[in-house]
Amino acid sequence: MSAPLTQSQIDDILALDAEKRFKYLVKEVVSNREIWILTDEHGCVMLNTDEEDGVPVWPNKEFAELWATGEWEECKAEAISLNKWHSRWTYGLEDDELAVVIFPDQSEEGLVISPEELDFELKQQARK
User: Fold this and answer.
1) Structural domain containing residue 28
2) Is residue 2 part of a domain?
3) Is 36 domain-assigned?
4) Could you give the number of structural domains in the chain?
5) 93 Cβ neighbours under 8 A, 6+ residues apart
6) Given this model, what pLDDT does residue 60 score?
7) Is residue 30 in a domain?
8) Which domain of life is it from (predicted)?
9) Which of 6, 16, 41, 93 is most buried (CB neighbours < 10 A)?
10) DSSP per-residue codes, 1-38
């Protein structure tokens, strides 16, 4: 687990574009060995677009918690170990034909990729 982020660090990271947030997420997830989602009594939170449904993921607890407002204020940030992500989540999301929404910002902007693509990038980063 990483040290808590300062507000200045959070602001700087949120100012990054979607591609840079993706790179930050990959490095943080591999470094901390965990990825963050939001959950409620029904399971994990989903984002829906015209084309597909996806599970939003964040690199740190602080960013996931920033989303737990409004209609999601009852949600809790939950860490998933990197091992569990590789062994269960990647295949489960693919089987359910769900995408992964990478580190969406407050305006719901984030890269939408396949679970397999995220898994590949995480494994590439782990080899470095």
Assistant:
1) 7-127
2) no
3) yes
4) 1
5) 55, 99, 100, 115
6) 95
7) yes
8) Bacteria
9) 93
10) -PPPPPHHHHHHHHTS-HHHHHHHHHHHHHHHTEEEEE
Residues 6+ apart with CB under 8 A from 35: 25, 29, 57, 58, 59, 79, 80, 82, 85
Both tokens assigned to 120: 């590949």
Q: What is the pLDDT along the chain (128 residues), one digit of tens a residue?
A: 567 889 999 999 999 999 999 999 999 999 999 999 999 988 888 988 778 899 999 999 999 999 888 888 899 999 999 999 999 999 999 999 999 999 997 777 889 999 999 999 999 999 98
Among the listed residues 81, 25, 75, the one whose alpha carbon sits nearest the alpha carbon of residue 47: 75
**Among 93, 89, 92, 111, which residue's Cα sits nearest to residue 101?**
111
Q: With a threshold of 0.85, does the pTM exceed it?
A: yes
**CATH code of the domain containing 120:** 3.40.1350.90
DSSP designation for 70? G
